[in-house]
Specification:
Number of helices: 26
Strand content: 5-15%
Number of strands: 18
Subcellular location: Secreted
Binding site for heme b: 551
InterPro entries: Haem_peroxidase_animal, Haem_peroxidase_sf, Haem_peroxidase_sf_animal
Strand order of the largest sheet: 16-15-17-18
Distance between the termini: 59 Å
Pfam family, one: An_peroxidase
GO molecular function, one term: heme binding
Length: 837
C-alpha cells in the first residue's frame, strides 16, 4: 500500500519502496547505462502522458457529475464504494451549504382544502361545539386513569418532558381546535389523497373563551422580556416567544392530513423499535477528537431554546398508555411504541409496549393541521437558568443585590435551591434521610442527569458572580437593575460560547465562517446583522429530530476517575436523575472533569445500549422492573407524532442532491447503511428524517453530515439574524458598548468553569475538544483570557481612579483564592493540589 509519502521506484512491472530512498534512478548519471537511462526516460514520459490523459478525462467526468448527471438515479453501483467519490460528493454538498448565507425560506402553508361553505359562521360554531365535547369526553376518561408509578422509567421520561400549568391551559385550546378541524373535515367529506398535502391553513376559529391579546411593548427596552415577546416589532407576540407553535420548515405530513401520525405512502412504516434495532444498533467507536462536554453543553443549550409540551391529564398527571386498563389504551394521546415478540432485550420482561404519549397540540387560532408548541423562548437568553415565565423568575430570585436564590452548604458552597417534592421523579428516601435533595432551577429538566445538573449549577453561580461584581462597582444600582444586567451579560456569554466553541465543532470552522456563524471579534465596526424579516422561532424538525443528534455522541461508560492512576468508570444510566454527588465537596469539579475527560462516540447511526435499552432504568431500591426505555425509538416515534416529513423531503428543501430512489440514496449513505435501511423500509419516501440524517457521513472537517448541517445551521442563522437583542448588535438601546463587548469576547467555557467550580486550577483551553500534544494543552486557570472578568466597562461612576480599579480586580482574585482554600485545595487533572497563598 502506498500513500503520498511513500517513495517509489521502478521494479519490473510494478513499484516497490526501497528504504532508504535515494531518488529516481534516471537522474543519477553514474547509476545505470545510457541505454537504460533512455529506456527509463521514455517510460517516465509515457507515464506522464498517460497521467495527463487520465486527469483530463477525470476532470471531464467531474464536470458532468457536478452538473447533476450523477444524481439522475440511473447508476450508483460503480461509484458507491469509492472513498474518493464520497470526498467529491461531500465537497459538492459543502459548496452548496457554504453558498447558502441566509436562512432558507420556509415552505408556504398550503391553502385550505375544503369548500367555501365551511367558512360560514354556523359551520364553524358546530365544529367548535364538537371540539368542546371531545375535550369533555377526554377529561371524563382521564378521571378513571391511574398515572404511572413514581420512579418507573415511563414516569421519569414524563418528568424529563415536564409541561408547565400555562402550557396545559393552551393545550386544552389546541385540543379543541384540533377536534373541531377533524369534525368539519368529516362533515364535508375531506380525506387526504396519496401524495397530497394536509388540509391546509383554514379560517379563523372562534372559541367561547377568547384569549387575552393585549400586549404593551416598549421596543426601546434595554432588557429582554422573560417570555421572549416584544422582540420583533411586526410580530411581537410570536417571533421567538415562548408558548407559541414551532415553526415549520416544510408542511407537516399527517396520515389523515390533520392530526394522525405520519404513515407510509404505500405499505406500512416499520415499528420505531425495529428501526432502532436494525439500523441504530450498538457501537462503541469513540471520536478521540472531542469530549462529552460537547454533548453536555449541547443539551444545556437545547433546553434554553426548546421545550416541547407533552399531553398530560387534567392536573398535569402522567398518562400510562401501557397499563392493563383498556381506558388507558383508548386515551387519544396514546401512541405507544410496538415491541415485537422476538425483541432481543424486552422479551425477557414479556413487554410488548413502550409507553409513549403524544405532544400537546398547540392553539393556532385557526382551523388546520395539528401543531406543537415550544414552552421555551427561541432566543439564547439563559432561560434554562432563569425560567421562561415571570412567575418562575420571581421564585428563583433572592431580591438581594440582583442575585439568584441558592442553598448554602455548611462549608460555604453554593448549590441550587433544593426540591423538597418527593414525587418529582428524582428525590429518593435514602438520600433525603442524609439531607441530600434534588434541585430547582429555571428548567424542570435540570435533574435529568448529573452532568446537566452540574451545568445548571455552574451558570447559576456565574450569574451571582456577575451580580456581585456589578453591585460592588455600582452600589447605587437597584436589585432589579443588577439582576437584569447580570442576566443580559450571562445570555451574551452563552451565545458567544455557542458560536465560538460549539458550532465550529458541528460544522467545521470553515463552513461556520462561510455562513456567518462565527463571532465578529475582530470586526467591532462591522455592520449590524439584525434582520426583522427573519423568524427566529424554533423549527419543529430541529427540536424533534435534527438537534437530537447529540444522543448518538453519548458513550455507555464515563470516566469518573479522580486521579490518573486509578481508572474508574460509571454507566450512563446510573447518572440519570442522580445529582446527589454534587452535595459532596468538589462534587461539581468531579462531574465537570468527567464530561471533559470522556471521549464521545461518533455522530453516526449507531448508539450505545445505555441509550437503546437502559434509559431511566430502575434500581433495586425503586422496587420496579429494572428494564429501561429506548431513546432512539422514542425519538423516531416523536417525529411521526409531529408529522415530520420523510428524509427525502428535507434533502430537497436544503437544496441537496435528491434521495427519492434507492439509487440516489446510495450516493448519500454508505452501502452497509443503505442495505440496513432497505431491509425494513418499503420506499425511500418512508425513511424517517432522524434515521436518514444520522446515516450520512460527516462533512470534511465537521462532525455533522450535509442534512444535519443544513437544518442546524439554518436555525442558528435565524437565532442570530432574527434577534433584536443579539449581543453583537451595533445600534439600539439593547447593544453593549465596545469595551463591554470586547470583555464578553474573552468568554470561554473553560474560564466559566475555572471561575465557578469548587477548585479546578488547570483546564484545557477548549474543553469540548481533547488534549493534543501540539495544541489545546492544559493551562493554569489564572492564565486564561477572561478568567478575571473586568467589570469596569459597566461602571457608571463619573471618574474611576485607576488605583480603585486595580484594587477591585485584586479583591475579586482574593475572593477566588479564599473560596478555593476553604474547600481544602483544588483539582488539577482530577488530582488534589495545594494552593499557594
Amino acid at each position: 500500500m502506498t500513500d503520498e509519502t511513500t517513495p517509489l521506484t521502478a521494479s519490473g512491472s510494478g513499484y516497490v519502496a526501497l528504504p532508504p530512498y535515494q531518488g529516481p534512478t534516471y537522474v543519477f548519471p553514474g547509476g545505470v547505462s545510457p541505454r537504460a537511462r533512455r529506456s527509463k526516460l521514455k517510460q517516465f514520459q509515457c507515464c506522464i502522458a498517460v497521467t495527463f490523459v487520465v486527469i483530463v478525462f477525470a476532470a471531464l467526468g467531474l464536470a458532468l457529475w457536478l452538473s447533476g448527471s450523477a444524481y439522475d438515479g440511473s447508476s450508483s453501483d460503480s461509484n458507491a464504494d469509492g472513498p474518493s467519490f464520497f470526498f467529491v460528493r461531500n465537497e459538492s454538498e459543502w459548496e452548496t451549504l457554504a453558498g447558502t448565507k441566509t436562512p432558507i425560506p420556509d415552505e408556504p402553508e398550503s391553502v385550505w382544502a375544503l369548500r367555501h361553505e365551511t367558512l360560514e359562521p354556523q359551520a364553524g360554531a358546530q365544529a367548535v361545539s364538537a371540539g368542546i365535547k371531545a375535550l369533555g369526553d377526554r377529561e371524563i376518561l382521564e378521571e378513571g386513569l391511574q398515572p404511572s408509578a413514581i420512579n418507573t422509567p415511563q414516569f421519569r421520561h414524563y418528568r424529563s418532558l415536564s409541561t408547565n400549568p400555562e402550557a396545559r391551559k393552551l393545550a386544552r385550546r389546541g385540543y379543541v381546535e384540533n377536534q373541531a378541524t377533524l369534525d368539519i373535515a368529516q362533515r364535508f367529506n375531506y380525506s387526504k389523497q396519496p401524495g397530497r398535502s394536509n388540509i391546509g391553513r383554514g379560517p379563523v376559529i372562534v372559541l367561547p373563551d377568547p384569549m387575552l391579546l393585549r400586549l404593551d411593548c416598549d421596543f426601546n427596552e434595554r432588557y429582554r422580556r422573560s417570555t421572549g415577546v416584544c422582540n420583533n416589532k411586526q410580530h411581537p407576540r410570536t417571533y421567538g416567544a415562548s408558548m407559541v407553535p414551532y415553526r415549520r420548515m416544510v408542511a407537516p405530513d399527517y396520515a389523515d392530513g390533520i392530526a394522525a401520525p405520519r404513515a407510509s405512502h404505500g405499505g406500512q412504516l416499520p415499528p420505531a423499535r425495529q428501526v432502532s434495532l436494525s439500523i441504530h444498533r450498538s457501537s462503541y467507536e469513540t471520536d478521540t477528537n472531542f469530549t462529552v462536554m460537547l454533548a453536555v453543553f449541547g443539551q444545556f443549550l437545547d433546553h434554553d431554546i426548546t421545550a416541547t409540551s407533552l399531553t398530560t391529564a387534567q392536573e398535569g398527571e402522567s398518562i400510562d398508555c401501557c397499563a392493563r386498563s383498556t381506558l388507558a389504551q383508548q386515551h387519544p394521546a396514546c401512541y405507544p411504541v410496538h415491541i415485537l415478540a422476538d425483541d432481543p432485550y424486552y422479551k425477557q420482561y414479556n413487554l410488548t409496549c413502550m409507553n409513549f404519549v403524544r405532544s400537546a397540540p398547540a392553539p393556532t387560532g385557526r382551523f388546520g393541521p395539528r401543531q406543537q408548541f415550544n414552552q421555551a423562548t427561541a432566543f439564547i437568553d439563559g432561560s434554562m437558568v432563569y425560567g421562561n415565565l415571570e412567575q418562575r423568575q420571581r421564585q428563583l430570585r433572592s431580591y438581594i443585590n440582583g442575585t439568584l436564590r441558592m442553598f448554602i452548604t455548611e462549608d460555604g458552597r453554593e448549590l441550587l435551591p433544593i426540591s423538597a417534592n418527593p414525587e418529582d421523579g428524582c428525590n429518593r428516601v435514602q438520600m433525603t434521610r442524609q439531607g441530600r435533595y434534588c434541585f430547582e432551577c429555571g428548567d424542570d429538566r435540570a435533574n435529568e442527569n448529573l452532568l446537566l445538573t452540574s451545568m445548571h449549577l455552574l451558570w447559576a453561580r456565574q450569574h451571582n458572580y456577575l451580580a456581585r461584581g456589578l453591585h460592588q462597582l455600582n452600589p447605587d444600582w437597584t436589585d432589579e437593575r443588577v439582576y437584569q444586567e447580570a442576566r443580559k451579560i450571562l445570555g451574551a456569554q452563552l451565545a458567544h460560547i455557542t458560536y465560538n466553541e460549539f458550532l465550529p465543532v458541528l460544522f467545521g470552522r470553515n463552513l461556520s465562517e462561510a455562513k456567518g456563524l462565527l463571532p465578529a471579534r475582530e470586526q467591532l465596526d462591522a455592520p449590524d446583522t439584525y434582520d426583522p424579516l427573519v423568524d427566529p422561532s424554533i423549527a419543529n424538525c430541529f427540536a424533534t429530530a435534527a438537534f437530537r443528534f447529540a444522543h448518538t455522541l453519548l458513550p455507555g461508560l464515563f470516566n469518573v476517575s479522580r486521579d490518573n492512576s486509578t481508572p474508574e468508570a460509571m454507566e450512563l444510566h446510573k447518572m440519570l436523575f442522580n445529582p446527589f454527588s454534587l452535595w459532596a465537596p468538589h462534587g461539581i469539579d468531579h462531574a465537570l472533569l468527567t464530561a471533559s475527560n470522556t471521549p464521545v462516540l461518533r455522530v453516526d447511526r449507531f448508539f450505545s445500549l445505555e441509550i437503546t435499552q437502559k434509559l431511566f432504568e430502575g434500581t433495586a431500591e425503586d422496587r420496579i422492573p429494572i428494564c429501561g426505555l429506548d431513546l432512539v425509538s422514542l425519538n423516531i416515534q416523536r417525529g411521526r407524532d409531529h408529522g415530520i416529513p420523510a428524509y427525502p423531503v428535507f434533502r430537497r428543501h436544503c437544496r441537496l442532491p435528491p434521495v427519492d430512489t434507492w439509487e440516489q440514496m446510495a450516493l448519500a449513505v454508505d452501502n452497509a447503511t443503505l442495505e440496513s435501511i432497505r431491509q425494513i423500509y418499503d420506499s425511500p419516501q418512508d425513511v424517517d428524517v432522524y434515521t436518514g440524517a444520522l446515516s450520512e457521513p460527516p462533512l470534511e472537517g465537521a462532525i455533522l453530515g450535509p442534512l444535519l448541517s443544513c437544518l442546524v445551521s439554518d436555525q442558528f442563522m435565524r437565532l442570530k439574524l432574527g434577534d433584536s437583542h443579539w449581543y453583537e448588535r451595533k445600534v439600539g438601546p439593547q447593544k453593549f458598548s465596545k469595551p463591554q463587548l470586547a470583555e464578553i469576547y474573552k468568554t470561554s467555557l473553560a474560564a466559566i468553569i475555572c471561575r465557578n467550580s469548587d477548585g479546578i486550577q488547570r483546564v484545557r483551553q477548549h474543553l469540548m475538544e481533547r488534549h493534543r500534544a501540539n495544541g489545546n494543552r492544559y493551562v493554569n486557570c489564572v492564565d486564561l483570557e477572561g478568567f478575571q472578568f473586568d467589570f469596569q466597562p459597566w461602571s457608571e461612576a463619573k471618574a474611576e481612579p485607576q488605583l480603585h480599579r486595580a484594587g477591585f480586580s485584586q479583591a475579586m482574585t482574593l475572593v477566588r483564592l479564599f473560596t478555593i482554600n476553604s474547600t481544602n485545595g483544588a483539582l488539577d487533572h482530577g488530582n488534589k493540589a495545594s494552593v499557594a497563598n
